[in-house]
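Data availability (excerpt). The following record was deposited with the supplementary files.
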Amino acid sequence: MVKRIALASSVLAIALLSSGAVASAESYDVLIRNGMIYDGSGAAPSRGDLAIRGDRIVAVGAALDGTAKQVVDAKGLAVTPGFINMLSWATESLLVDGLGQSDVRQGVTLEVMGEGWSMGPVNEAMRKLAGERQGDVKYPIEWTTLGEYLALLERRGIALNVASFIGATTVRQHELGEGDVDPSPDQLKRMRALVRQAMEEGALGVGTSLIYPPAAFAETDELVALTTEAAQCGGSYISHMRSEGDRLLESIDELIEISRRSGAPAEIYHLKQVGRANWNKLEAAIARVEAARASGLKITADMYTYTAGGTALAASMPPWVQDGGTEAMLQRLGDPAVVERIKREMLEPGKNWENLYLHAGPEGVLLANITEPSLKPLIGKTVAEVAKMRGVSPEQAVIDLVRADQGRSGALYFLMNEDNVRKQMAIPWVSFGSDAEAAAPEGVFLKSSTHPRAYGNFARLLGKYVRDEKAAPLADVVRRLTSLPADNLGLRDRGRLAPGMAADVVIFDPATIADHATFAKPMQYATGVRDVFVNGTHVLRDGEPTGAKPGRFVRGPGWIGWPDGGACRNDGRRVAG
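Predicted structure:
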């Protein structure tokens, strides 16, 4: 009887092995054990393991069986998909420092660029102007198209992934220059062709920044035409709207109109309400978006976690001053009669422009970036302080600084309300972006200051707002840092922890993650993110960079290199994320 049982057991074992029901333990490259897995869906976390082979996640489970070249213990820590920075200005910083530490140390694994301006396409005239206008960060422009720029970053080596919208400003400048003109039918046709080319190269859609010249000169029909081209390739429209203050609601209406007429999903860059008189518009803004969503449109937004914005000091002046470009502006600033007109308009509500200077006041405009060496001691001072030092009006101080620094100065504008920032945290269709570079407190970056959002935006979200103030639940915020933006962008393999997805993974401590950057001392790294993997490679280990540069050019749904040819080659079919 015992022999018969043993024989039967042997036969069963052989059958199980031959059927694959019993197999040898799996072998992985990386096995992350014992973490609290937030898979990006918004579901409650579960304790478990995650396995990586090559650049892909191959298993996620309660207790994975197998061996690995590298075993990482994540006990007591959150394990999430890599964070997507929906508004990145790492366009120049990654050219000179591919490690992108200010973002990597916060868990960012994908930088999404293209707020109005993109790094391509460029023609020879644009190449010459861009070279002449470079500030502290200098680099040769070795590309022509947007796709060539992103591919160049990948070849040089970067720690993070990169993707980009094509900037409508850049397309306009390519064909029309920087003047206040409307495109002819032929010019618009060429502009649309540039959008199509970028979409076929892997751009995500069309990005606009409509408060700044020459973008401010574009009319709605022009934007619809460009966005329609992107929509036919599965792309979306994303916009720094014409106004975030006095005409906030009207600007949301324009964004919704562009979405409806073009057929493209649309996103509001850095949702905010600029100026005390407009702080009460948040609920109406939400209602506008909710109504559009209820009608079947896909309208979303992103935000940063601060009450101050940051942009050029020249944005303190009305847009007509920059008609024709920086050089034309500098010439105007040499005309005393024009200067007097500018100063008058800086003190009046902008009838057809966003008067950031008036909303912030000279005490609320803080100098952050200056290129001219003799002016660098003014960094960290307000316009009001500079005006007092020089014995001139604040408006004259702005004009003098813009002229002396050749239009390159940047400033922080204190414009928003903390209660509104906190309320926006809970909106389910809002994701997050830093609106800043990915840098480090060393080298060329020490020549100027920056906004603390460059070093703290995501850690501030997870520490101050989620953990300390409970403005939104952690699982949902992880979703809005990962799968929500991935889906909005039409990305096929990012934003979730699941087999087959790209192995962009973050391990952080929800109990300790914190931002340390301040407006006075912005170049301070966040803490609490322990490990970051990009495409399966460890780029942050125990809170320190490894020096690895596995980042890639992440292409959008229109890319003609996809196995199915991409949406640009499939009758405009939008490829689902």
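Summary of structural features: Confidence is low (pLDDT under 50) at residues 1-23, 573-577.
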